[in-house]
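Re: Re: ligand-bound prediction request (bumping)

Still looking for help on this. To restate: I need the protein modeled with pyridoxal-5'-phosphate bound, output as structure tokens. Inputs repeated here so nobody has to scroll up.
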Amino acid sequence: MARIAYVNGNYRPISEAAINVEDRGFQFSDGIYEVCFVVDGRLWDAPGHFRRWRYSLAELKMRSPMGERAMRVVINRLLRVNRLSTALVYMQATRGVAPRNHAFPAEAIAPSFVVTANPFDFAAAEGVAQKGVGVTTAPDIRWARVDIKTISLLPNVLAKDAARRQNAVEAWLHKDGLVTEGAASNAWIIDQNGSLITHPLGGGILGGITRERTLACAAALGLHVEERPFTLEEAFKAREAFITAATMLVMPVISIDGKPVGTGTPGPVATALRRAYIDQCRAENSNS
Ligand SMILES: Cc1ncc(COP(=O)(O)O)c(C=O)c1O
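Reply:
Sorry for the wait, this slipped through. Here it is.
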């Protein structure tokens, strides 16, 4: 069955789904996106993802292509036509189509809106989490507004590619010796005292929606949390490490630049947080 995408009001096979060549997303990366995890037809952490969608749009002075309720209708229909119930849903809005000019038109133009859904193998992901993943490190060369979830991702793409070449799944970005976050995830360590440490909000990172719930899970588990930047040196000495993102939930990290973290196997805290995360989301979505 051909995969179907939603593009500006139409549901089309991916190969036929197209965007105007003068779309500002295509020419300037002038747009934003969200990725949501869907399990059994339910969007996990939906309020957080819609809140950040509105925030990103507002920061770029963009209009939303439609309201949340209409977006949910599109997502549900897209899942139905693709016969998917457990999936990753990608939503992207760009400022729209206009003759190429850096400054966008003074009068509002219609934003472009694209949604795709890809199957997600939950059991396979659990298998990966049981083994853990490796990360590499790379200088954080991104712009200063990484708190906005823009489609302008070239530094992230290059860092991920370098990671992949070293058989790692993620790159931890660092600035002035401090780890900011992953190329597509938030970065966490557990130090030798058992403190859970992750970079604070307020500049330097994207406020991950998975990060937010992980903090709530950590509080529920009674963990000591420090929201502060940590150094590369602390990362190499950590007892445990993990990453969080909608695409991976809580994923244990077992090596950094090829050096084992702790015992070189998924740690008990990361494993407990992953379990707590999944249990909380399942419970929230089972009776709503
Ligand atoms: C740079 C960056 N940081 C953090 C995250 C994690 O965000 P979330 O948990 O909302 O998926 C992402 C997700 O794509 C990301 O690209």
